[in-house]
Amino acid sequence: MLSEGTWREISRCISCGACNEGCSLFHASERKESLGPRSRINIVRAINTKVAQLSINSIEHLYLCGSCTVCNKYCPLNIDIAGLMIRIREELIRAGYVPPYNIARMRRNIEVNDHPWDSWDKGKWIQVRRSARPKKHLFFAGCWTTRSQDMANSAYMVAKKVVKDDLGLLESAEPCCGYPLKIAGHVDAYKEVLMRARSKIEGFEDIVTPCISCKESFKESGLSSHYLLEMVPEDLEAIKRRSGKAALIGSCRDSFTDKARNILEIAGYDVVDLPDWCCMDCGFSLAYTISQDLMKSVASKIMETASDLGADMLVIVDPFSYYLFSSIEGGKIEIRDIYSILLDSFRL
Ligand code: SF4
Ligand code: SF4
User: Which residues form the 4Fe-4S ferredoxin-type domain (predicted)?
Assistant: First the structure.
């Protein structure tokens, strides 16, 4: 079932369980072994050696991994657990296994509706007045950003200031870059959707996006694309000093998390360090597609942890994470996106 290379990696695992310590699903479930990475590896091992059969539950379990890579840092054998999970999904699909129903539905939606959901108007977030002249730069919101009107608007305002030019917008016609298909293991479908998206945005010289997955997908397709946070200048000067304790849910790239942290510190916030398992980014949107309740429980646990550590605000970088945390009712902590902090505290 698995390729030789993938099986070789799986076989290196000594089942020590150290990786569980990095996993948000493991911690949010009060350290339930069956939600940690070691059990995902053990499931694949058992199936490949024919000790067990692949069931709907075990396939779902493989799709719950959010590819955040935190567990990789804990593995004494340097196994790329996050990368392995994506490869395994890919190889299972090639071997003819069917992904969980909700993932198949997401694929259909991306291919038919150009976003991962059954219905949604992606232009709904736009509150801004636009000029009619042709633009060099395209502000590409990304599917999940469009679900959070406030984050989409603050990111757009920051992009305008950073680019120092008008930005083109595709509104409801913005395509999906296809990235969720890539991490779901649907490599061929991903390439097709990406090429289709590319053809829909031709004519712009540069793409600016608050979604790192969109940025990387378009870069892979040969377009010039930029991650918005990366474009924010380093030498910021606060126009208004803030106070308070802010916990940060950063990006899947350490350098961008460091940048967001720097922004908060220059703005005057005390940054509260969260345990590294308190991580959430767009890779978890697959897990959210399978179980919204599970992912809401993870977000609630992270909010509770931040609050217990004295934070009065949770600042979020990733658009999917912002959507998820904002949807938690009755949370005791304020949720902010990094772009609204930039607009409040700096002259860009
Ligand atoms: S990559 Fe992240 S979500 Fe996946 S097993 Fe590792 S820590 Fe858990
Ligand atoms: S930390 Fe590495 S060796 Fe230990 S169980 Fe996890 S993947 Fe296997």
Answer: 9-79
